[in-house]
Amino acid sequence: MCGIVGYIGGEQAAPILLDGLAKLEYRGYDSAGIAVYNGEEIRMVKSMGRLKVLNELTHDGATLPGTAGIGHTRWATHGAPSDTNAHPHFNETGSIVVVHNGIIENYQKLKQKLIRRGYEFRSETDTEVVAHLLDYYYKGNPLEAITRMMHQVEGSYAFGIMFQDHPGEIYAVRKDSPLIVGHAEKGSLIASDVPAVLKYTRSVYFIENEEIVRLTQDEMVFYNIDEEEIDKEPVTIEWDVNAAEKGGYEHFMLKEMYEQPKVVRDTFSPRLKNGDVVIEELGMSDEEIREVRKLYIVACGSAYHTGMTCKYVFEGLARIPVEVDLASEFRYRNPILDEHTLVIIVSQSGETADSLAALREVKKRGVRVLGIVNVVGSSIAREADNVMYTWAGPEIAVATTKAYSTQLIAQYLLALKFAKVRGTISDVEFAGMLEDMERLPEQMEMLLSNKERVQRFANRYLAARDVFFIGRGIDYAISMESSLKLKEISYIHSEAYAAGELKHGTISLIEEGTLVAAVLTQEDLFKKTISNMLEVKTRGACVLAVTQVGNTEVEKAADYVIYIPKTNRYFTNSLAIIPLQLFAYYVSIGKGCDVDKPRNLAKSVTVE
Ligand code: G6P
Predict the structure, then answer these.
(1) Is there an atom of ligand 1 within 6 Å of 379 CB?
(2) pLDDT tens digit string along 297-327?
(3) 542 is catalytic
(4) Which among 120, 340, 392, 570 is least surrounded, fewest beta carbons within 10 Å?
(5) Three-class SS string for 292-308?
(6) Residues 6+ positions from 407 with CB-CB distance below 8 Å
C-alpha cells in the first residue's frame, strides 16, 4: 500500500520526509519520491526501487533544500513500477504537486476529458489525472480547486498536495484511504499512518472521509467538502512503533483479516457499473466469451483453493466445465488445451515459480491466459495475455487472508460476466447476486466483530494433535483452505475431507475428543453433512459447525456452532472463511507460534 508523508515547518523537509517514508516501508512499495518547495520552485526526485536509491540520489535529502515537502512510497496499481509512474506527480507547469494513496475508479473517463482539453500525460497512473484536474480547477484558491476535484473523482484516496503560489501551506484530503496529521514543535506533518510521525508527536488527528486540512508551520485548519471550517479533536497515541506499524493490531495477519471488508469492496466496486459487471481488462469480446468451452484454473496454495471454490461458481452460473489444477502438477501433465480453452492463473505475488511456469507452458501452445494477480507489474501480470488485478494491497503476513478473499471476488465477477454473456443466468438472479455481493463487506465486518467468541473456542484446542475439516461442494473447498490456515500457522496436523469420503478411511482416525470442523453453507446439502457430523460425533469427536443462520437443525450434531449471515449460495466462502481464519489465528497465538512468519514458509515461492 502506498505511503504518504508531508512536512511543513522550520526545519529542512527532505530528511524528515525520508525518515517518515522509512517508517512506512513495512506497508510494501516498489518506488519512492519526494517533492520539496524551496520558496521559489517545487523540486522533485523520484525513483524505482528501495528508499536507499532515493537517499543516494538526494544525498540524504541535502540536494533538495526547503522547509515544505511531500513524499511517497508507491505500491503500483495503475501502471507498472517505474521512475515515471512513481509519485509525486506534477501538473504540466510544475506549480501543483500531488501524492496519492488509493484508486481513482473513473480515471480513464477523467483522463479522456482532460486530454480533450489539451492536457498531456506523462505517466500511466490514475494519480496524474488529479494533478491536471486540480490545475484545471485552480483559480488561485486551493481549497476551492480541491473540493471541485473531490466532486469529480470516484474511488478511494488520500492526497498530499502543494501549490507553488501558496508557499507555507500543504493540503491533505482523504476518502476511504487512511490519513493522519499531527502538529509538533518543529512543524506540521501528514502521513498515511502513525509510525511516520511518532518521533515528533503522539497527538494526531485522524482525517475522516471527505475532510480537508490546510497545514502551515504553526497550525492545522480542517474543512468539510463544503469548504466550511470544522473542529476536530486530537487523539493521543499510546502504541509503540512496533504496534503502530500494525495499526494497533497485535499481528499483521489480524490487521489483514480486518482489512478484508475494505479490499473486497475495492475489488468489486470499480467493476460494478449500472447494474452490470464491467471487466475492461478482460480483453475478450462477447463472442470470444461465448466460444470458451473449457476453463482451467491453475494456482498454488490458497490461490488454488479459491479456484476449487470458483469451479462450482463457474460451472453453476456459466455452465462451463472447469478443471482446477495445482500449478506444479499442471505444468508436467501435458494438459489438453485448444483454441476454445481459457486458462486462468491465480496468484497473489504474481511470481510463484510453478504458476509462472504453467503460464509459459500454456502460452507456448498458443492458448489464451488470463492472470488474476495482486502485484501490479509482476511476472505473471506481465506475461499473461490479460490481467485482472485484485486490489488487496500488499500482504505482509505469510499466511494469506485478504488476498485470498479478493481472489474469490475477482472470480465471482468473472463467472457472473460469463454467465450474463452466455445467457445462463436470469436478469433477476444476476441483479440479486450483485446486491448480495455489495452486502458482503458489511457481513464480513459483523463476523470479524465476533472474534472473542472464536478466541475462547480456539483456546480449548491448543493441545489438539489432529483437526479435521469436512464439507461438501463449496464447503469442501472452504474446508481445504481452513485446514491449510490452521496447519501452516499453528503446526497442528490437519486435513480436509469431502464429508462423504470420511467413511472410506478417515473415520478410523477419529478418537475421543478429536476436533472435527464441519462447514455447512449449501442448503441442499445440510442434511447430508449433518449425517456425517453424527457419524463422527458418535465416535467421540467434538464437532464445530460453521453454518448459515437459520440452520438450527445442525445443533443436534454439533457441540459448538458459528452462524454466518445469509448470502447467495455461491458467495458463502467469503463469509464462512472469516471465523475459520480467526480460529487458526487464535490457536497459533495461543500456542505462542510466530503467526506472521511461520517456520519453513515463504510469502512468495519463487523456486520450484
Ligand atoms: C505461498 C504462500 C501462500 C500462497 C501461495 C501461492 O505458499 O505462503 O499464502 O497462497 O504461496 O502464492 P501466490 O503468490 O501465487 O498466490
Answers:
(1) no
(2) 999 999 999 999 999 999 999 999 999 999 9
(3) no
(4) 120
(5) CCEEEEEECHHHHHHHH
(6) 302, 303, 306, 346, 348, 372, 374, 390
Write the pLDDT tens digit of every residue in 161-190: 999 999 999 999 999 888 999 999 889 999
> Residue for cell digits 487512511?
178
> Residues near 337 by Cβ (< 8 Å), separated by ≥ 6?
296, 343, 362, 365, 367
Q: What is the pLDDT of residues 217-260, one digit of tens each?
A: 999 999 999 999 999 999 887 777 677 778 789 999 999 999 99
Cα separation, 212 vs 172, whole angstroms = 6
Q: What's the Cα-to-Cα distance from 586 to each of 250, 452, 515, rounded to whole Å?
A: 11, 9, 15
What would you report as the CA-atom Rg of the chain, rounded to the nearest whole angstrom? 25
Report how far ligand 1's centroid is from the alpha carbon of 30 (Å).
20
Is the distance from the beta carbon of residue 487 to the nearest atom of ligand 1 less than 6 Å? no
C-alpha cell at 429: 438472479
Residue found under cell 513524499: 71
Residue 374 CB neighbours (<10 A)? 28
Pull the grid cell for residue 541.
Answer: 469427536
**What CA–CA distance (Å, rounded) separates 130 from 96?**
10
Ligand 1 geometric centre to CA of 346 (Å): 10
Tell how far the Cα of 398 is from the centroid of ligand 1, in angstroms. 8
- Gap between the Cα atoms of 160 and 180, Å rounded: 11
The answer to whether 603 is a known catalytic residue is: yes
Q: Could you give the CA distance from residue 266 to residue 328 in angstroms, rounded to a whole number? A: 31
d(CA 356, CA 221): 50
Contact present, 153 and 104 (Cβ < 8 Å) = yes
CA-to-CA separations, 300 to 330, 352, 409, 474, 542, in angstroms, rounded: 11, 8, 17, 18, 31
Q: Which of 505, 502, 504, 506 is nearest to 493 (CA)?
A: 506
Cβ within 8 Å of residue 492, ≥6 positions away: 461, 464, 465, 466, 467, 486, 587
